[in-house]
Amino acid sequence: MEAQPQKLLRPNVSALDKILGLPLKLLDDGFIRVVDYMGDDSAIVQAARVSYGKGTKKVHDDRGLIRYLMRHRHTTPFEMCELKLHVRIPMDAWRQYIRHRTASVNEYSTRYSMAIDATQKTAPVKWRHQAQGNRQGSAGLIDPAIGRELSQKEVALHEYARAVYQERLAAGVAREQARKDLPLSTYTEAYWKIDLHNLLHFLALRMDIHAQEEIRAYATAIGEQIVARWVPMTWEAFQDYRLGSLQLSRIEMEIISAIGQSNIPSALKLAEAAGWLVAGPKGLKKNRERQEMETKLEQLNLQIPWTK
Amino acid sequence: MEAQPQKLLRPNVSALDKILGLPLKLLDDGFIRVVDYMGDDSAIVQAARVSYGKGTKKVHDDRGLIRYLMRHRHTTPFEMCELKLHVRIPMDAWRQYIRHRTASVNEYSTRYSMAIDATQKTAPVKWRHQAQGNRQGSAGLIDPAIGRELSQKEVALHEYARAVYQERLAAGVAREQARKDLPLSTYTEAYWKIDLHNLLHFLALRMDIHAQEEIRAYATAIGEQIVARWVPMTWEAFQDYRLGSLQLSRIEMEIISAIGQSNIPSALKLAEAAGWLVAGPKGLKKNRERQEMETKLEQLNLQIPWTK
Amino acid sequence: MEAQPQKLLRPNVSALDKILGLPLKLLDDGFIRVVDYMGDDSAIVQAARVSYGKGTKKVHDDRGLIRYLMRHRHTTPFEMCELKLHVRIPMDAWRQYIRHRTASVNEYSTRYSMAIDATQKTAPVKWRHQAQGNRQGSAGLIDPAIGRELSQKEVALHEYARAVYQERLAAGVAREQARKDLPLSTYTEAYWKIDLHNLLHFLALRMDIHAQEEIRAYATAIGEQIVARWVPMTWEAFQDYRLGSLQLSRIEMEIISAIGQSNIPSALKLAEAAGWLVAGPKGLKKNRERQEMETKLEQLNLQIPWTK
Amino acid sequence: MEAQPQKLLRPNVSALDKILGLPLKLLDDGFIRVVDYMGDDSAIVQAARVSYGKGTKKVHDDRGLIRYLMRHRHTTPFEMCELKLHVRIPMDAWRQYIRHRTASVNEYSTRYSMAIDATQKTAPVKWRHQAQGNRQGSAGLIDPAIGRELSQKEVALHEYARAVYQERLAAGVAREQARKDLPLSTYTEAYWKIDLHNLLHFLALRMDIHAQEEIRAYATAIGEQIVARWVPMTWEAFQDYRLGSLQLSRIEMEIISAIGQSNIPSALKLAEAAGWLVAGPKGLKKNRERQEMETKLEQLNLQIPWTK
């Protein structure tokens, strides 16, 4: 296939080498730092060309091929790159982080060593309100006057919990048991290694506006400060075709298609059939899928058929 | 969380039980049959409700919740169902099948036993032309007169290859070595077990029009004859939100948004900036991404800004 | 391969059906209960026979085949069975549990709902000493008089932490943020689904004497009360060939081989070459690998060459 | 944990850099060459130390820690290293290779490009006899006179199959369909990337004497020529604790323990209870597990209690 396999040099990315090992600070006492990496944009291209054979070269340059692969959700070429991070993160955020099963992980052991003496602290101006529409989110900030009190009590709780932990250790209690009441805000550290395909999946979920602010901070730092340096063509394509993309369902497509023909009655009939236009006491009854489509129509500057 | 965990009965799906073990015939000598399954639509709902807690019940009925999960690409609740198939398939198609790494597999061993004495045969009217636009596809059928000749030679090759195989075995050659020149069209069999989330991913890729006809036949049978019976709500949601969906890139969204405002100059400027409107000797130069968008605009009945 | 695929009934295991849904109580407020399962001992045999073809029947009955597969560490046939549990467990133990990446999980969300109002409490007689030899374990119990005090303070900490949590919620803080200082002892719940091969791997690690007592309780309940009922032949084989097995390294084999020939000088030379017999101020210098071998030699009633 | 994270240099292994890209020839026309790698012996140690904390340094030097991790089957630290190979291999061996699901793969596509024009050819002196005891293996070589004839017919079959393939392409048949009767001996190529833990598992299975000769050649080259250069301490530990190790079952341990006490009646009673000593017409009836133990006793120079 390749006429003559030849001596290779390992690909290296000097923009990333410059920050290798340097911590990107996160939250009040967390960080992420790159420990090692394998591959670069050209490694993705190289692997894809094995599949597609010689013909590919003519059709696509490197950037074009990467964009094509991303647009059509090809996955295996992106698995050919690998990133290893050293992460310092509160256990609460780590509980979300670790749910991504495709990574390799070595975490600091509080059975083997004393727990890290640091907890994530919330500044008085950083307490967030429970969102109403979205049961699992936050919206807006708590009055700093109240926040001040919450923050004081937080510190007191951290100190109390630490004192209990120390007391247990002093009494000879095993570390594996003494730790049982540490607050979830306690920092942990880990080596975390993942391939680029699975990393992008992690970023798509965790950079999303619906992700919790704390893990979003980690994901955003990984995306904007690490991946952007490491594989710039892939990062550009990811932003164009994944982060900034919009998915239309079959029903949404049909409705837009009717709008495209200026056939509003047909659009209404489709929405009706989907059960979106049930009348309530004050206007249309709440319907989540309809509301989702309204947001999309606004993004596309298209008319919402059921509003005047 | 659940007030009192209670005695359970295993969920069973009588529509699927009816075909349990019965082969669905495929190609000339292949089949798929359901050997076992775990879970049903309500098992997906049950697992999702563990995550979302009691509140969910009010907001969604079962169908609504499944549709919500599918629309927002939730994955873990769909992993709670599992399907086990017995598959008989030519090795050539199996080479594609096995690339899905998330399944559990036990394949018939031609080291241990004699190779199955069956090869996939192509009828004279079933030889397909190489596609021109799509380097990896077929398009249209070969003249049956030529097909007849191709089919005759195919049978001759199968017989010859089998004779060589038999001769080797008769000479005492080890099965693991004798098999080395069997044609890829030789049938193999396997038990194949996969969870519903990963199965749907397999179906999205392999029911696609770009998948090779042979594996598409298997995927379509699994989808339409098995999944549709097994988890009908999930199957409906999958068709609405995955199979029939359309992905718009950031650039495409911006262009549609300009079209929505009837701002054609702005739409053209965006396409221009994306490098889509390079003039060639006869009209616009071929650009794959522009062509992809043209297809989408046609589906949506929206005007293509760069054609009159 | 199989002469004629035929209508099937789903395998069911009445011994397991009897406890389906019923909680097996663990720790002070945890439980495990079987929600569903797929397959049984004969499903393992069925899948293995696909690989090995017809010949297998003659050589092995079902039990013999399962034992053969387990002894030789075959894995794929055991993947053909699947178990789904509902688990209630302290977050601290869950942190270990979740490290097994091959399971499917839906966990109770404390973003979406209020945290479960239960924490694992330690009885005065259950506080464990830090082990000396093994840095990550416990050894022996703390004096109950001290334990009483530790338990009182534990309750006080739990109440305090819960009060802070409630106060935050009352002040309108988002659940996703309010939870950040819950103690690790807080109970969580999850649906957890895993195939039998990966479950046995989990059990081998977590039923081990070196596993932490809390997770060992869960693993032991799964093994002895669930797996033993579900796939009794596999469970028997697992005990004989995995749990109760002993691994000898190349060096250990060579030394035992010398012992077998009553060639003690040769055994000593081998241990010497491995660096095990370095003299210290009082007898041999501590060497972990040598100590491991001494334990094995004692188990096997073989003479330790370097002690008189 | 680490007092101050600091600027890092990527680890590199000059012994491996020397052969980067250079093909190691295999079979008649195959090869393996290293395309890239991540990590080295010290990266394993680095990740393990994150888990174990500062204390580890004192107890173990790097080699000691790696040997400890291997001996106790720790897995995650070995996942921190990654290897990427370019492999050229007959499809028949690739069918076994690809069963290892934990690797990332990009394979040459015979839908997209013409199949590689090379098939694995067997020299007259390389035809292997079917093994008798082991249904899935080979044993000894076929008479070269017969081998000569087999090799001639093999070449004829390859040529014939290729002619049919060419004829189809000439008739305009799609590549995806034309390939269906290529012999399994046809070479394919792939990029194959895997972490060190999973690679060692692959090597343990495929360097084993029971693995088929062809794939064993690939595994042995990867082990002895690549892994040995890349992570020499890990390779040494792997040979001592995995490749060269011996597993004793519970029953075998009990019998050896009786032998250790020179209590032959007790050893016989245990073997009897295990069903190993059933009398047949000529001596003991064949029993696979007993035979396995006899082999182990011979390796250990221990007496077989049931032979005189």
Quick recap:
Four copies of one chain form a homotetramer. The first copy, chain A, is an alpha+beta fold and 308 residues long. The first copy, chain A, contains 13 helices and eight strands.
Outline the structure in words.
- The first copy, chain A, is an alpha+beta fold.
- Chain A has 3 domains: 158 residues, Gyrase A, domain 2, CATH 3.30.1360; 58 residues, no CATH class; 50 residues, no CATH class.
- The first copy, chain A, contains 13 helices and 8 strands.
- In chain A, strands 1-2-3-7-4 form a 5-stranded antiparallel sheet. In chain A, strands 5-6 form a two-stranded antiparallel ribbon.
- In chain A, strand 5 and strand 6 form a beta hairpin.
- In chain A, helix 8 runs antiparallel to helix 9, helix 9 packs across helix 10 and helix 11 runs antiparallel to helix 12.
- The longest helix of chain A has 27 residues.
- The radius of gyration of chain A is 25 Å and the shape is flat.
- Chain A starts with 13 loop residues before the first helix and ends in a 9-residue tail after the last helix.
- The model of chain A has no long low-confidence stretch (mean pLDDT 93).
- Chains in contact: A-B, A-C, A-D, B-C, B-D, C-D.
- At the A-D interface, strand 2, helix 2, strand 3, strand 4 and strand 7 of A face strand 2, helix 2, strand 3, strand 4 and strand 7 of D.
- Strand 8 of chain A pairs antiparallel with strand 8 of chain B.
SSE order and pairing:
The structure is a homotetramer of 308-residue chains.
Chain A: H1 14-17, E1 24-26, E2 30-38, H2 41-52, H3 56-59, H4 62-71, E3 82-90, H5 91-97, E4 104-107, E5 128-130, E6 138-141, H6 144-170, H7 175-178, E7 187-195, H8 196-206, H9 213-230, H10 232-243, E8 246-248, H11 250-260, H12 264-273, H13 288-299
Helix pairs in contact in A: 4-10, 8-9, 9-10, 11-12
